[in-house]
Amino acid sequence: MKPPVYDAPQGSLFYSFDGALDRGHELYVLAHNIRWERFEKAFAPLYCPDNGRPAKPIRLMTGLLILKHLRNLSDESLMAQWRENVYFQYFCGQTSFSDRPPCTASELVHFRRRIGQKGLELILHESVRLNGDDGQDDRVSF
Q: Residues 20, 22, 26, 32: is their CA dihedral positive or negative?
């Protein structure tokens, strides 16, 4: 089933990332420079709009893949670090802290299969756009 799209973040009654995080942190800055709507638009047709269990948000899953490659982590290690890193959570579109992983490592495998090579290339192109000339390095891969 198609994942929900959250236009406006909903704040938490007890704790919210808004105002609590360092706005100069690399992941905070990167989260505001990525064109997340490109991924929403490109990946939404890969989901059935009215059948099956609701999927995880596209921003979340795409953000996890980007973090995995930025930090050179395994799927399992990424899920473990998610529980401790508020910047990982903010980067992926969360508005408040959660001590529970957002998905299982196997769900990342399923998402990569769903978006396929073209989806991974779209993520790589966004990375190249953000990195400018550094993205033209022959050693860059996804």
A: positive
Would you give per-residue pLDDT tens digits along the chain (142 residues)? 777 766 555 554 556 787 789 999 999 999 999 999 999 999 999 988 888 888 899 999 999 999 998 899 999 999 999 999 999 999 999 988 888 999 999 999 999 999 999 999 999 888 888 876 554 545 444 4
Q: Are 17 and 94 in contact (CB under 8 A)?
A: yes
Note whether 92 and 67 are within 8 A (CB): yes
Residue 30 · residue 87 · CB < 8 Å: no
Task: Measure the CA–CA gap between 77 and 72, rounded to whole angstroms.
Answer: 10
- Rounded CA separation 73/58 (Å): 20
Between vectors from CA 125 to CA 111 and to CA 33, what angle results, nearest 5°?
90
CB burial readout 81-108, b (16+ within 10 A) else e = ebeebbbbbbbbbbbbbeeebbbeeebb
Please state, in angstroms and rounded to a whole number, the distance separating the CA atoms of residues 49 and 8.
21
